[in-house]
Amino acid sequence: MIPSLPGFAFSSPLSARGWNLERTALAFGELMTQLGYQRFGVEGGDLGAGVTARVAALMPERVIGAHTHGDRLQLGMVGENFPTPDGLNPDEQKQLEEAQHDWARMKGYRVLHSTEPNAFSAGLADSPILQLAWIAEKLHEWANPATPISRKNVLITASLYWFTRTGPAAADFYWELANAPDTSWDTKSPVPQGASLFYSNPLVRKALGPTDNTFFREHTAGGHFPAFEVPDLFVDDIRAFFRDLRN
Question: With contact defined as beta carbons under 8 Å apart, do 25 and 47 qualify?
Answer without folding.
Answer: no
